[in-house]
Amino acid sequence: MKEISEIKIPVDLFYTEDHEWVSRQEDNLRIGISDYAQDQLGEIVYVELPQPGDSFEKGAVFGTVESVKAVSEVYMPVTGEICKINETLEDNPEFVNQDPYGKGWMVSIRPSDASDLDTLMNAEVYLKKLRGTE
After folding, report:
1. 33: which strand partners?
2. Are strands 80-85 and 61-67 parallel, antiparallel or unpaired?
């Protein structure tokens, strides 16, 4: 496992307590799990995602990530409707390990309330949380 100083935490993203990340993509939001989360899970072998058109409340489980160590639920950081999923993860779940903020993104959603972003952590606060200094 990586040391906290080795974990990638892009400054232009938002983060949740459960280690999901959110990026703005014009009118939509893209969501995945953080470098810290994928590192803790280990080798990811399967990703289960919802279907476009599905709607989720903030905090609801929208998918699962299965690694050689465990199965972990993935939680919706904001309320919204799935407009796109990363279908390449079906055949290439390892992208979550290799590039969690790029090729390893999971879903794109149309948020119901953009102010939900205000409840998420920025990179600085997320890093403090990981270090236990928040």
Report:
1. 20
2. unpaired
Residues 6+ apart with CB under 8 A from 60: 75, 76
Q: What residues contact 115, with CB distance under 8 A and at least 6 apart?
A: none
**Angstrom distance (rounded) from CA 91 to CA 114:** 32
Q: What is the pTM of this model?
A: 0.95
The whole domain housing 69 covers: 11-112
**Residue 53 φ/ψ region, left for φ over 0, alpha for ψ in the -120 to 50 degree band, beta for the rest:** left
Query: What total number of domains does the chain contain?
Result: 1
Q: What is the CATH number of the domain that holds 26?
A: 2.40.50.100
Yes or no: say if 73 and 59 are a contact pair by the CB < 8 Å rule: no
Please check whether residue 60 is in contact with residue 78, taking contact to mean a CB–CB distance below 8 angstroms: no
Gap between the Cα atoms of 70 and 65, Å rounded: 8
Structure confidence by residue, pLDDT tens digits, 16-26:
999 999 999 98
